[in-house]
Automatic annotation (TrEMBL):
Domain NADPH-dependent FMN reductase-like: 5-147
Native source organism of the sequence: Pseudaeromonas sharmana
GO molecular function, one term: oxidoreductase activity
Cofactor(s) named in the record: FMN
InterPro entries the record matches: Flavoprotein-like_sf (IPR029039), FMN_Rdtase-like_dom (IPR005025), NAD(P)H-dep_reductase (IPR050712)
Identification of the protein by name: NADPH-dependent FMN reductase
Superkingdom: Bacteria
Coiled coil: none
Length: 182
């Protein structure tokens, strides 16, 4: 069985983000024969259709997307919807010819936030996935409350129940990626 390459993208730009913490935790919980590279969105400019050649920072993420077999999106919730940094990189990637960077790829969505754990933002992101021809993993879903002790002050996931739920989502994502590759 060949190695699966996943790309993790956090919609938050904060260093101590709990959503970045979820991706860091995911790197230690991956199934065998799976690697997770993390994208850095901190220097990605706003999408602008007048810019005909994507800047180097965007091209860097495009290269990561092109090499990825599947995606793991850590989706914060801002004002009942997804964070602009996550939507922005998806907008950039969607403008590439034939949607070659996203179309047909498996994606798992997770998030840490307030009381409902980014559920509203995740449902908005699923709507975007339809247009982009991404194939979201339906179950298990992953929602974490970022304010009830599951994360340390650096944004790292420390709750064992949440770690196990994340492990389960990663295992299901690996199966989903391989299923879609057949």
């Amino acid at each position: 069985m060949s190695e699966l390459k996943l790309l993790g993208i956090a919609g938050s730009l904060r260093t101590r983000s709990t959503n970045k913490g979820l991706l860091r935790a995911a790197q230690s919980l991956l199934p065998a024969d799976t690697v997770l590279e993390l994208a850095d969105l901190s220097d990605i400019p706003f999408y602008n259709a007048d810019v005909t050649t994507p800047p180097p920072s965007v091209q860097r993420v495009f290269s990561q997307l092109a090499q990825a077999d599947g995606l793991l999106l850590a989706c914060p919730e801002y004002n009942y919807s997804m964070a602009p940094a996550l939507k922005n990189i998806l907008d950039w990637a969607s403008r590439e010819p034939d949607n070659r960077l996203l179309a047909g790829k498996a994606v798992a969505i997770m998030g840490a936030g307030g009381g409902m754990g980014t559920s509203r933002a995740q449902y908005h992101l699923r709507q975007v996935c339809v247009f982009l021809d991404l194939h979201p993993l339906n179950k298990p879903e992953f929602f974490a409350n970022a304010f009830t002790g599951g994360f340390d002050d650096q944004g790292n996931l420390i709750d064992e129940t949440l770690r196990e739920a994340l492990r389960n989502q990663l295992q299901a994502l690996a199966v989903w990626v391989r299923q879609l590759q057949k």
